[in-house]
Design goal:
Blueprint (H helix, E strand, L loop, with lengths): L2 H16 L5 H15 L2 H11 L4 H14 L25 H4 L6 H12 L6 H18 L17 E4 L2 E4 H13 L3 H10 L15 H14 L14 H30 L12
Antiparallel strand pairs: 1-2
């Protein structure tokens, strides 16, 4: 390879690996694994017919696919799908104010759930719908993906974490997980071992719940759990410990809720509007 070509390739790889992806590749894989391990064998088989299989390798790729392609020109319009921003002082999500064009994480979860439900779609489109659904359910449970509009979900807030400067959003996406949990499969097993039963397991999933999940994430932002109290932006050990526990709770919750969506779709428990176009 010519030297100029090698330099260009190196720059490209550095730009890709330095991007902050929601929950990171590990977090999204964990959510997918938790979900699939909770559903019935019948639902697991149903999904395998759509995506090929439900192995760790397949789930890790599928649940991260929206981030893998987001920098490609053809997928650039999908970048707003990953978050929703609310104004300060807002007590709850309102679609007409916060997502009037339907291109935010809350409305796209509903959209791709409906797409996955469309048996008339070709398998590749339903597979893509699962990729999005797994990914976006995860995104919505990272609190800053339902954060404030005026600081772009914590992207304009700088913090210092173990001597490294990063954005607050990045800290929640990948910083703490990578620092404390280096093996995602082992971390998944740890989460599953201490997972409390979901009180809604067995109850039919409803489309309106997605709005409630948005409010839940936003209330975490409004409270004192997401932004560090120290004025200099330095992340204390106490804050790191509390954030790690919250991250674990959110990963478990996201996985359980994704399982309920998949169960509802695979068993025909919920009526979803037809979605025939991306």
């Amino acid at each position: 390879m010519k030297k100029s070509g090698l330099i260009c390739l190196t720059v490209l790889l550095l730009s890709i690996t330095s991007q902050a992806y929601p929950w990171g590749r590990d977090g999204h894989a964990i959510i997918g694994r938790i979900a699939i391990d909770q559903v019935s064998p019948e639902t697991r088989d149903w999904l395998a017919q759509i995506i090929g299989d439900t192995s760790n390798k397949t789930l890790r790729f599928a649940c991260n696919w929206p981030d893998i392609v987001r920098e490609q020109d053809q997928y650039s319009p999908t970048r707003p799908f990953h978050y929703v921003n609310l104004p300060r002082g807002a007590s709850e999500y309102r679609s007409e104010r916060d997502c009037a064009d339907g291109r935010c994480v809350t409305e796209k979860i509903k959209y791709f759930a409906a797409r996955l439900d469309q048996e008339a779609l070709v398998k590749s489109e339903r597979s893509k719908a699962f990729n999005w659904l797994c990914h976006l359910v995860g995104d919505l449970h990272q609190p800053l993906h339902a954060g404030y509009a005026d600081d772009r979900g914590g992207n304009d807030v700088s913090v210092i974490f173990h001597g490294t400067s990063m954005r607050l959003h990045q800290l929640w996406d990948t910083g703490i997980i990578r620092r404390r949990h280096s093996n995602w499969q082992e971390f998944t097993r740890e989460l599953q071992a201490r997972q409390s039963p979901d009180p809604l397991n067995g109850q039919q999933w409803q489309l309106s719940e997605v709005d409630e999940w948005t409010n839940e994430s936003h209330q975490l932002v409004v409270g004192d759990k997401v932004y560090p109290a120290t004025g200099n932006g330095s992340i204390s050990k106490e804050f790191e410990d509390q954030a790690d526990l919250l991250i674990q709770q959110r990963l478990i919750t996201a996985g359980s809720r994704l399982a309920r969506i998949l169960t509802a779709i695979s068993t025909g428990q919920v009526a979803l509007p037809a979605r025939t176009q991306d």
